[in-house]
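Tutorial, part two.
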Amino acid sequence: MDISGILSRLDEAFNAADTEGAERIITEGIKQSVEEGDDGSLLQLLNEYLGFLRETGRSEESFAIAEEIEKLSERMGLFGSIPHATSVLNIANAYRAGGRLHDSLKCYDEVEAIYQKSVPGDSMLFASFYNNKALLYQEMGDFNEAVSSLNKALSIVEKKGDSFEIAVTHANLSNAYLGLNDYVLAEKEALDAKRIFEESGNLDSHYASALYSLGICRLKHGDVLSGRKALTEARSIMEKFLGKNEFYYRISDALAASEDDVPFVKGMEIARAYYEECFKPAVKEKLPGYEGKIAAGLVGRGSDCYGYDDELSKDHDYGPGFCVFVSKEVYDEIGETLEEIYDNLPGEFKGLSAAPRVSRQKRRGIFVIEDFYRDLLGMIPAKDEDYLAISDYALSAAVNGEVFDDPVGRFTEIREMLKQGYPESVLYLKLAQSMSVFSQTAQYNYGRFKSRNDNLTAAMMLSDGLREAMRIAHYLEGKYPPHDKWLLRSTKDLSISTKILPLLNSAFEKGETDALGAFLAELAYEKGYISDTDDYLDNHRDELLFKHRASKLSDEELVKEIAKTEFKAFDKVKNEGGRADCQNDFYTFSIMRESQYMTWTREMLLQYYYDFTRELSYGHNLITEKYGRMMESTAPEKYEEIKDNFPFISPEKKSVIEAIVAIQVGWMLEFTDKYPKLGLRSRSVQTFDDNAYNTSYETYLRGEISTYSDKMLQLYGAFIAGLAQSGENLAFKTMENSVKLYGYESLDAAEAKAD
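Running the prediction step on this input gives:
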């Protein structure tokens, strides 16, 4: 087939802004190349079609073409070649335009790897690559990387003297500087691009991009007439060449935002009014009977969804708009009509131009419920591991905003599930990671680079650390941290804001992070995540990682795992009279221990399991210590010889221990009064009955809780106090667990069968 002729006709159609004709030429050429088995021509035309669909905003169709290109490249054996890199670059651009940013980044990385092996560093292929990857960085909000990439492209195209590519790169640089709010440099680059485009006569969509940036800069500088003129011309050119695509609506946004006489209204307020006054009546008229199947609100991407929008927010995506959520079944029935209703809503409402339905990602319009969440999150999480694959800011966006109506409740059901926050095991891991990064950057590397007089790197380290500090604060308050640009603003909404904000500001201004670390450690300690308040947060990493692993176990599994771990330690206890028979009886041991732990809270189980395992790793057997401490009553002379081997217990801690012991001894006396037979089969209750052959319940209890860490004793003391205040008796609970583990139906049944 005559591929060169087809491409020539295609160029003519594009130059004439005949988009329908261009698509017809491409699709007919694809059909012909398939019929003739001409894979080479097919690959060229598929790539042309991919670019066409991308530019015209038909993302889903472009994704399908991308898959066909990948299959064809594999069949042709092109993987790793320059032609394959060209195709992958086109696919990366399509993914970028369609909002699949992660997939786009992977494709760009693949292209770069091929180019580095096969292409000279000053090749125009690299220039095109850097230009396109910069657009991805802009979509990701990383405008510094975008500028860096574009400067690499500019150095190549200027060396080659390609005026069109030079102009395109200047236009792209201008838009990147807009993202950095550097309107001086943005205007300079836009003017350079505009001049070169006009000199060469290339006044296409790239020229519109330069005009858009110039218009925004002029508006920012207060030159409203000039700015609106540039924007109006840019929108007209864009519509002529590519139709009403995403960029067309972005320009429309900018024009709407330049209506300075319109007072600022919060996006949430205007969205609700637009929905109530315009959309609901239209649904009632055109889809009677479906009102009870449609949910709506303003949720997801955008500062207005958080309520953080302000006057500055009017420069993009501002104006009346909202989200409509329906089931897949309902969408299949009335989705087309819903789309028409939304598309035909007033273009202006209360003096504001309607917000675009698509800008970077789809933010407003009609959504299938599950598709909305999958678009934001990549998946609807079903298990702990799923949450690790989803970014904090995506989860934050999934639960922000307001739901105006949800008569069925499905949208809110998923929303409320997500609002519960990270699963326990994930939260421990998130805290471990962020605490480690905080220490490595703000507490360690910051000071090292300051001492080297490398102030820029020190500032970077401090910035990274402060970001992690704010994330930690969100985790500890059960909230998902939003995108970095809203992280500080969101921190101001936390209940601890009045305490942490001065510490953040002090750290930023003076580089003093110890107080901030101490505050976060204290907060994590109070919330029960860590055992002490060491202000160097990385020192808590091992505990958090241990609890991350342990928290994957159910309460029942934890109880059994603790009993097994204790028995292994019990097996190593050396007695003066030789090995005790009970050290060979795991069955009885496990029942006695499990019956006790079955009454505990999950926090107590995790803490004790961590404490016991940690001490074993240090060579400290808490079972040995427990029996040694009992000897203070059962063998005082021997105790005097060994007491210095045990950790010191302060008078304050001893008083807490004795208060706990007194309560529990009272409970056990109540139990033996009611169940005397079972009482006779247990230990004697009080210490005055101790001797070399008998250890009382009181002595055993005192010895055991004397081995508890400060944190564990705090938890246990609160547990006992809570039971006492509610009038509950732990002895009854524990003994009931014990007899049931032995196979009895109840305490009464066990008492009746006791000798």
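The first strand starts at residue 295 and ends at 298. In part three we will examine how such features are distributed along the chain.
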